[in-house]
Amino acid sequence: MNRDITILVSTFFLISCNFQFPSTEAGNTKRHSIYNEKREYLWVESKLDVSTPENLIPSSWSEFNSNQLGLNPIANHDLWIRFPDSNVSRFKNPTLYIEIAIEKIQVFHGSEQVYLFENTDYVFPHIIPLKNESKGYIYIKCESKYHSFIGLDHSVEILEHSDAIIDLFTKNFLRSSLTPVLLFLSVLFFGIYVLKTKAIFNLYFSLLLLSSSIIEGLNGFTGFSMQGYDKILSSVQYLNYMICPILLMLFLGEIFPRFFKNVFRLFILLHLCLYFTYLFRFRDNGHFSYLNTEWAFSWWMVLEAIFVIFSAVYILIRGEVKLTLITFGILSVVFAGAHDTLVDLEFLPYKFQIIHFGFWMGILSFSYFVFRYYLMMVRSLDEYNLVLVNKNKELERLVAIDKDLELAKELQKSLLSSLQKGDENIDIISFNHSLHSVGGDYFDYIKDSMGNWGILICDVAGHGISSAVVAAMAKMAFTATSPYIQYPAKVFNSMNRNLHGKNRGMFITASYLYIDMESRVLSFVNAGHPIFFLIRNGSPRLLDFKSKGRPLGIFPDSEYTVGKVSLEYGDRIFLYTDGIPDLSSPSLGAFGEDRLRQLLWDLRNEPFLKFHESIQKELSIFSKSWAHQDDDVSYILIELKEPNLVQDSK
Prior knowledge:
By secondary structure, the protein is an alpha+beta fold. A hairpin with a 5-residue loop joins strand 16 (441-447) and strand 17 (453-460).
């Protein structure tokens, strides 16, 4: 991927550096910048309606600072600008070239009006023919409802008329040539979307390219050449300034991690609300002021750019290799756009525009990524055919494996104790739902000659065949402890020794309970397993218990602390594996321990069998019939019978 970025940067560098037009200068006579002249300004109240420079007071003019031809507006005032015209006689067909004149301007050569432009929201160039004789000054009257700036901006020069047209075209060559490229890619991606409608990011990217092509195509030379349609051009241009960031965020929301999709949706909603709020706020006599809307909206655009930059940097740091090239292109576009926005907000000085270079870099990176991706896809077709041939053989092998898994499933069932067991003093019900055909959860119970019970629940790390094999080993290790089940710590010490070095690093968490039925004392040990719960009649809350101990099979020597608790008739004990809190729901997230506590508490008064059935039903509903199960799920439910029930059974 780093090699891809190097190739991309090299290509862009060659385009930027090798593309040179013949210079239009010959000596010092081909162009003259007004910024080299003494430039003066005068504020005149709009109500005075001064129509010619002859009505202006000569002694009232003030001099501009360096590199300045505009000012912050003064309410109800027009701005007059003047500069000497001594250089016009050096040109055969002199032309005044103004790159941007904010809204309405009126140009005088001496006392003669040579140009009048009365439209608003117009930010395209002006090329104004002059006579090649000096008349003292060139005057420009500026009227504007733009809140941020009034006057001229960027390049203001005197040059030959033919050179002005050529110069305008050459200055805008990159953006003009970018337009057909963007349109071609837009159509290409729309075609890709039609072929595969599920990949909606292709549609968003196609619309993003279309919007970008409109922005680039209407700038500069194209905007000047279609000056008669300036109202339509301005509306289309500024609406695309609003739409383009939305499409970018929709596109990123589809290719970035899911968290970003939700955040981008929120940004889009706020984006639309703020833009139309500003648009209607600056409405004047039925006319929308796009320039003022853009000026007020710029701070939000900068905020969006910052978030997109940080999200892209996060993707790069995270090491999402497949997204590196796209992220690199996004950063190029957003950095360039943020730079030009900050220039418009006057946080940064104007020296040059980089937005078009950013677009080129972004489009090159996107295009290279896409074409490389689809070229690889085409090349893989032959390989795919070969894979299909091998798939038939693989399918036969999988059928055989499936039969073996079914056999393994039946064998594992024989390893587990029966799901329901008990005697006149105790009831035990168990539940198991493996993620795959076989799993790593294991439970067992054993009754000694005195009628006391030893109950074990285990969870092998992972799931599937390997976990099932280790669970079978745990079964054998537990069976070997039957002579001393009344000593919980000794049971785990024995199991740990038998399992250590044989489980290939797959540790086992476990809980073991020993219930002395005569004294009704529960002794328990824990090996890194979740707590178990005690539901007691009359208790104001759910009780939970856990003792210290490391998982089985990892360390050769481990100590296990024995906990004890006195039981009462009617007590219910709930042991479980961590597959239950790990259950997930698309709308509610993880099931969690708190939800499990609440479930057990809410069902505490249900009859024992109904209690078990309700728990099983709630777990299944939450996980959408186990569709969102991430691990093996098991639990054991134990109830100490009431004495009257014992007598009734006799």
